[in-house]
Specification:
- By secondary structure, the chain is mostly helical.
- It contains ten helices and no strands.
- α6 packs across α10.
- It is elongated and about 60 Å long.
């Protein structure tokens, strides 16, 4: 029965995924992954909680969102490329302030720094970061919120500049950190 209902729904799921992604091939991949996830979780489907069609559409939407997150990840591990990207996208007033933000990121305690780098810098989902760090999704979210608050506080306090116009300790900035993506790889390797 499950496979028949799933088979009947595939054309609608494809149309929905194509609407979301605007790419026929990507939509087919999304639907295929959604069907696999639904098949694996078929025992958890409860018709009392809602219709099968609604359940499948939610799985398809979540698969699309996961695909978007994965496609946003940067595959480059070059420290200078990361710094350039961070500086370009940074809403801070200058490169020195961006370097200071990176320095302050590495001044956070390890738990907050690790989760912040995995989710914000590298682009892992909360669930993926929770698996890597062996903690709950709620803990990941909490650590990110605390890290953000501390960074905002530190950066607003450290806005004091010397007469030359550079922030204290900036020369260490990114070079002290070396490579944020390399650091993220170390976190993942430790968890494996």
């Amino acid at each position: 029965m499950f496979s028949q209902e799933l088979e009947r729904l595939i054309p609608e799921l494809r149309a929905y995924a194509r609407m979301l992604s605007a790419d026929r091939d990507r939509a087919d991949d999304i639907v295929q992954n959604a069907c696999l996830k639904a098949w694996k979780a078929r025992r958890t489907f409860d018709p009392k909680k809602g219709s099968f069609k609604a359940w499948m559409f939610v799985i398809t939407r979540n698969e699309f969102l996961q695909d978007v997150r994965k496609s946003r990840r940067t595959d480059t591990y070059c420290p200078s490329a990361f710094e350039a990207t961070l500086t370009e996208e940074c809403q801070l007033a200058s490169r020195a302030e961006c370097s200071e933000a990176i320095r302050q990121l590495f001044a956070l305690n390890q738990d907050q720094r690790d989760v912040f780098i995995l989710v914000i810098a590298v682009g892992y989902s909360y669930e993926e970061a929770a698996k890597i760090l062996n903690c709950s999704v709620g803990t990941v979210k909490s650590r990110i919120n605390r890290a953000r608050a501390k960074l905002i506080e530190k950066l607003s306090q450290d806005n004091v500049r010397d007469p030359s116009g550079s922030a204290p300790g900036i020369e260490d900035g990114f070079h002290q950190v070396q490579d944020v993506f390399g650091y993220a790889d170390q976190i993942v390797r430790r968890a494996a």
